[in-house]
Specification:
about 0% strand; about 350 residues; mainly alpha
Length: about 350
């Protein structure tokens, strides 16, 4: 297997890279179709095609042979959910790429700075106590976003020594902030009645869920992802320079302090938005960039588009599995991603340990 990988990976030529992108687009399309068809209510593909044909044409082109409730399930529930799954997976992957470039550590992920724990604490606070102050479906999203901002401000202040922030200091500060907000989250859940609906909602949300997907939330997360993607892709060559070390990047004309701040702000915004939509979903930002890097190489010009496509496709499949595996109940999507991600993480640790001994 290692010989095959050595001879064929990474994909050096442009034609092979393009072929990989096309292959992933095909897999994505198949995954989307599967995710719309499968679920607690099984829907025939021909009924979906007929309904969509009538909806987009504005007239009855296909004969209506399906129950009217299917139209609501397909259009109002499954369609926004599938596309939100894609943008959440792609966004977590993009955050992973940013964190790995920032810390120069391929084992870093979107949660290394404690951003997700801050967002989680903010969202849980709104779930538990938000009805006292705010109303509406956006209160959890607001709490998560505010929590993410507070956590990154704390991490930056803790990591700052003589007005300078190094990657090591940032990681250590992130661990401290994550522990702090994790404790705050657990305390909020503990002081509530164990069997209350709010506690159950918070605990389920903390395991990751896309059950609250709507078209409005899709618009919210998709616009955020596209803007963040454009920003990060525009500085892709600077990210390549960052991997060579701060000193080398400085000699190449890169303003590393400004670049790091842009990366942190983008990761904070994107992680806060994603956590507010889907809850906590682990390992996607860690494993997908690492896997894709071994296929297409480490240059960010290739890595960013390919990895986000792989990450989005992975989470679409993970969401489909979460809805089918214990149907008609739904398994939290964070559990599914952890089942796939945790073994790969252990493999990376073992590989790094073996490499260190060799």
């Amino acid at each position: 297997m290692s010989k095959i990988k050595k001879h064929f990976l990474p994909l050096e030529s442009r034609s092979k890279y393009s072929g990989f992108i096309v292959l992933m687009l095909v897999i994505l399309c198949i995954s989307i179709v599967m995710s719309i068809v499968l679920g607690s209510v099984r829907i025939e593909l021909k009924d979906i095609v007929g309904f969509l044909t009538n909806k987009f044409s504005g007239k009855t082109v296909a004969q209506v042979t399906w129950d009217k409730s299917i139209e609501s399930i397909v259009w109002d529930i499954r369609f926004p959910r599938v596309f939100i799954a894609f943008f959440v997976g792609a966004g977590l992957t993009l955050c992973g790429i940013i964190m790995q470039a920032l810390t120069k550590n391929t084992l870093a992920d979107p949660y290394v700075l404690g951003i997700s724990h801050g967002a989680s604490a903010g969202a849980v606070f709104m779930i538990m106590y938000g009805s006292l102050y705010f109303y509406g479906q956006y209160m959890t999203m607001l709490g998560a976003f505010v929590g993410a901002i507070v956590s990154i401000i704390l991490a930056l202040q803790i990591a700052k020594i003589r007005n300078k922030i190094t990657s090591t200091q940032l990681i250590l500060a992130g661990i401290a902030v994550a522990a702090l907000f994790g404790a705050a989250t657990n305390l909020m859940i503990y002081i509530q009645r164990t069997g209350s609906d709010k506690v159950k909602t918070a605990q389920y949300w903390m395991m990751g869920s896309l059950s609250g997907s709507t078209w409005e939330r899709l618009l919210y997360v998709s616009i955020t992802f596209v803007l963040c993607f454009i920003v990060i892709y525009s500085i892709r060559k600077m990210l390549d320079a960052m991997l060579l070390g701060d000193d080398v990047a400085l000699t190449l004309g890169v303003n590393t302090a400004k670049l790091k701040m842009i990366m942190i702000l983008v990761a904070t915004l994107l992680t806060g938005v994603i956590v507010s939509i889907s809850g906590v979903i682990g390992f996607v930002g860690l494993t997908i960039p690492h896997i894709t890097r071994s296929v297409v190489g480490s240059k960010h010009t290739r890595l960013i588009p390919a990895a986000t496509l792989v990450g989005g496709t992975f989470l679409v499949l993970a969401d489909a599995i979460s809805r089918v595996i214990i149907s008609p109940e739904e398994l939290p999507i964070g559990v599914v991603s952890a089942f796939f991600g945790a073994p790969f993480f252990l493999y990376l640790i073992k590989k790094a340990h073996s490499g260190g001994r060799g």
